[in-house]
Amino acid sequence: MATSLAVLEVERKFIYSSDVEDMLQTLGATLQGRLLFRDTYYDTVDLHLTLNDHWLRDRQGSWELKLPFSLHGGDKSSNPVTQYQELTREKEIIAAVGEVLGCTPLSEGMEALVAELRLQAFASYVTDRKSYEVPREGLHVDLDEADFGFAVGEVEKVVSTAEEVPEALERINHFCSQLGVTSVKKVPGKMTTYLHQYRPEHYQKLKEAHVL
Fold it and tell me: CYTH domain location, by residue (predicted)?
């Protein structure tokens, strides 16, 4: 029986060169659009959410909670591909936040939840994103430039069952190989880089907890 999930995001980040868009088009990718947006991330004063690898984000009024999912466990710091379950329905987010914090929130909306649990913003930045689709592979590619001077690419496939993950991993890694991404080392994302630059104590705690 298939193991159903809300949404499971399987992704691999990469550092891209100036010719990446030409390479993407050669591989059958088509530009879907360009978007400028601000992400703001929240946590408790004692960082209980992020230390448990739960990432609560407000993208200009649209909320999302990313929480870890792994079929095989192990040290994810050395794995170039990451797997996260994404929650976008506010009721599910509130329930999941309450579960990891060991409480039952009374709030019915995200702004009220932030106030009730006294959550604080620990990161906020603007991203300039170009998005591509690769129809024949069923993949999505984002090229991001953050306003703090960091650029990173991401190849992603969204699946709905755990059984689909191995094929998603294979497709992502094969496409990255075609794109010239051969390193097996994990590439830091925007959040990791932001924390390293602007919140070094938070970054260090996450490293010690083996979250980063």
Answer: 7-200
